[in-house]
Amino acid sequence: MAKLIFFLAVQILLLSVVSSTRDDGENFARTIDRKLLGLRRKEKLTHFKVYWHDMISGPNPTSIIIQPPVKKYSTTYFGGISMIDNALTAKVSRNSTLIGKAQGFYAGAAQKELGLIMAMNFVFKIGKYNGSTITILGRNSAMSEVREMPIVGGSGLFRFARGYVEARTKWTRNLDATVEYSCYVLHY
């Protein structure tokens, strides 16, 4: 009788091991300790200001139209898509210190006004943030004095980032623009 109980106990144990290692689609996620990812430290709030230079004109544009807007909506840019690799500088002047690049795209998403969807990474190139990024994804009502867009993530020192940016247009000429981005980033 003891052998039978032992045999059944071993069978139940083996069955539970086999069923827990099955790839049935239910075991794809697990809870892990935050400390394994270096999340022991207290979250920080970092503020920085950069100037975004969207250059459409000239011999070396940093913003190119990859899909023109629907003709009917050409004044609102609806349906248009532009890919960007814009300079981020420390001051309004394009010739000031290069902090990094804004890489991504914007697209016309509103039919009756200039309303853009912005999807871009700020890729930092200098100092302690060199190689780190923040990701901005949101609506830009380009004709408003101040526009707010969310920071939805980041990498490097901005891993697990969240926050928001405020955009203010500082200068425009021939569809070129310089926009001040005031960024508020929560990160570890």
TrEMBL record:
InterPro entries: Allene_oxi_cyc_Dirigent, Dirigent
Secretion signal, residue range per the UniProt entry: 1-20
GO CC annotation, single: apoplast
Top-level lineage group: Eukaryota
Compartments reported by the entry: Secreted, Extracellular space, Apoplast
Pfam families: Dirigent
GO BP, one annotated term: phenylpropanoid biosynthetic process
Keywords: Apoplast, Secreted, Signal
Biological function: Dirigent proteins impart stereoselectivity on the phenoxy radical-coupling reaction, yielding optically active lignans from two molecules of coniferyl alcohol in the biosynthesis of lignans, flavonolignans, and alkaloids and thus plays a central role in plant secondary metabolism.
Protein family per UniProt: Belongs to the plant dirigent protein family.
Oligomer status and interactors: Homodimer.
Name of the molecule in the record: Dirigent protein
Source organism per UniProt: Brassica campestris
